[in-house]
Design a protein that fits this description.
Layout: H1 2-53, H2 61-70, H3 74-85, H4 91-107, H5 111-134, H6 157-176, H7 180-203, H8 209-239
Helix pairs in contact: 1-8, 3-7, 4-5, 4-6, 5-6, 5-8, 6-7, 6-8, 7-8
Length: 242
């Protein structure tokens, strides 16, 4: 089914190229990426509004935190803390650096380094700006698992950064790998990792649920832009001189 869908997409792109020409196809590719990015940004804004007005999806914050507290145990707290550290300021850069080195060596290209560095820089900027603008308090320390964190809560940096960085690495592997099973495994693994990091923040009481939700949507929007720009550049190189 996936092969059939990919073949159909390739035929549609070929038809679009014949109809629109090289520049038209580039514009189509750009629109295909930027429209989802705009929609995701709008979704993030809606979550932000709910947080500010303390209604809508923000109403789930306290019940979800209470549910997390109810299932905690010393062993599970330790395991989830180790997991969340993989998406932190030490774990994620180490994972990203190792993956980028391997990809650059494999493809003999600096593209993985440029894309992942761009993803990380953009997600960090979004995190810092969001925390500064919103200034939301984290859940009470009495409801959190140590070590405690004291920076602003909205959005979740772990969630946003893992979405952008791991998402970019997964995208690169998907376009590099030939095996359909390998691609499915990469997408599934990346999605599970990103979801686990985000949910770990809620479980530990380091973030509210809406902090994670807005981080995921912003991260997806930024990822859509990165992928779009890369695809436009690839198609431009493939098309050759205008």
């Amino acid at each position: 089914m996936i092969d059939a869908a990919r073949n159909q997409l390739q035929r549609l792109l070929a038809a679009a190229a014949r109809l629109l020409g090289g520049h038209g196809l580039l514009l189509l590719t750009l629109a295909a990426g930027l429209i989802p990015a705009l929609l995701l940004t709008f979704a993030a804004a809606e979550v932000y509004d709910a947080v500010v007005e303390e209604d809508g999806v923000a109403g789930l914050d306290q019940p979800v935190l209470e549910a997390a507290i109810a299932v905690r145990s010393p062993a599970l707290d330790t395991a989830v803390t180790w997991l969340t550290n993989l998406g932190g300021t030490v774990g994620l850069p180490l994972i990203a650096a190792a993956a980028v080195l391997a990809l650059c060596w494999w493809k003999r290209s600096w593209t993985p380094l440029l894309l992942v560095a761009t993803a990380a820089a953009g997600s960090l900027l979004l995190t810092v700006a969001g925390k500064s603008i919103v200034g939301r308090l984290r859940p009470p320390l009495d409801d959190a698992v140590p070590p405690y964190e004291y920076s602003a809560s909205f959005p979740s940096g772990h969630s946003l950064n893992s979405m952008a960085v791991i998402g970019t690495l997964a995208y690169l592997l998907v376009i590099y790998l030939r095996s359909r099973r390998a691609r499915i495994a990469v997408i599934t693994g990346a999605a599970l990792f990103i979801a686990a990091i985000g949910l770990s923040r809620v479980y530990l009481g380091h973030h509210w649920l809406t902090d994670v939700l807005v981080a995921w949507t912003l991260g997806l929007a930024w990822l859509a832009i990165i992928i779009t720009v890369h695809q436009v550049l690839r198609r431009r190189r493939a098309a050759g001189p205008a």
